[in-house]
Amino acid sequence: MDLKQLKEQGLAEIIESESLEDLKKVRDLYLSKKGLVPQLMTKMRDLSPEQRKDFGQEVNALKQRLLDESQKRFEALTQEEMERKLASEKIDLTLPGVAIDLGQLHPLTQIEREIIDVFREMGYSIIEGDEVELDKYNFERANIPEDHPARQMQDTFVIDIEYLLRSHTTAIQTRALEAFAPQLPIKVLCPGKVYRKDDDDATHSHQFMQIEGLVVGHGVTMADLKGTLELLARQVIGQDSKVRLRTSYFQFTEPSVEVDISCHLCQGEGCSLCKQTGWIEILGAG
C-alpha cells in the first residue's frame, strides 16, 4: 500500500469511528510503534539518499495529518459522549421532592409554644433575653442584694464579678421595666433557659426552662392575676382545670402566692401523682 492509499484509508477510518474505543483501535493500527505508518520507514533502506529525504518528509507529514485528524475526532466523540450522558442523567426540576421526616418537637418546646400563644392572644409582648446576664439585673434589681439570704436558695453559675448564667427569667423582666417604664401598661412574657447549680435528679436539673409574665398598670389586682392563670390552665391543661392560690413569699412580689391546679389524672380525687392531695403545684406568682 502506497502513501496515498494509506492516507485515504486512514483518514476514512478515523472519520468513520463511532466511539472512543473504535478510534483507539484505528490509532493503534496506523500510529503505534508497529503500526502501518512507522512500518513505512523500513522501506527507506531500499531508497537512494536523495529519495530517503523526500520519502521521510512524506511519511512524517502523513503521520502528523493522521494525528491531527484523530485528535479532532477524539474531541468530537468526547463531546458527543458527554452530551449523551447529560441527557440520560437530566434532572426534572418539576418533579416533587422526597419528603424528609423531621421528627417531632420536644415536649418542652411544645408546651412553651402553647403558653406563648395563650399570652400573645391576651396582648402580651414576648421578650427573650441573654442567658449570660449581669448580676445587677439577675439579683439586685429583683430586690435580692448581695447579702440577701435568697441568694443561697439559688446557687448560681458565676462567670466573673459582674456576669453570671441567669438563674431565673426575672432578669428579663427587670430589663423590660427599665426599657418601658414609665410608659404603661406593661404586659410582657419572658420565656427562656435558666441555670442553677443543682444536682440532676428526677425533679431537678442544672438547666431548665422558665416562663415569667409581668403586668404593670393602673387598677391591676390579684383578681386579674387569678383570671389570667385560670385561662392559662383551661387552655393548656384542660377546660375542667381548677386553680388554687396559696399564700407564699417571694422577695420580688407582694403579696405572693403559690399556684396549684387540680390534678388532671384523678380530677381532684387524690392519687399518687398529686400525693393524694388532688392538687399539683405549677408555679409561683404575685
Give a quick rundown of the structure.
By secondary structure, the protein is of the alpha+beta class.
Structural description of this entry:
The protein is α+β, with helices and mostly antiparallel strands and 286 residues long. The chain has a domain at 3-88. It contains nine helices and eight strands. It has helices at 3-16, 20-31, 36-40, 49-88, 107-121, 135-138, 150-153, 170-180, 222-236, and strands at residues 125-126, 132-134, 163-165, 186-195, 207-216, 243-250, 253-262, 279-285. The strands form three sheets. It has a three-stranded mixed beta sheet. The chain has a three-stranded antiparallel beta sheet with strand order 6-7-8. β6 (243-250) and β7 form a beta hairpin. α1 (3-16) runs parallel beside α4, α2 runs antiparallel to α4 and α5 (107-121) crosses α9. The longest helix is centred in the first third of the chain and has 40 residues, at 49-88. It is rod-shaped and about 125 Å long.
Main features:
286 residues; alpha+beta; three-stranded antiparallel sheet; 9 helices; 8 strands; 19% strand
Task: Furnish the topology, listing elements before pairings.
Elements: H1 3-16, H2 20-31, H3 36-40, H4 49-88, H5 107-121, E1 125-126, E2 132-134, H6 135-138, H7 150-153, E3 163-165, H8 170-180, E4 186-195, E5 207-216, H9 222-236, E6 243-250, E7 253-262, E8 279-285
Parallel strand pairs: 1-4
Antiparallel strand pairs: 2-3, 4-5, 6-7, 7-8
Helix pairs in contact: 1-4, 2-4, 5-9
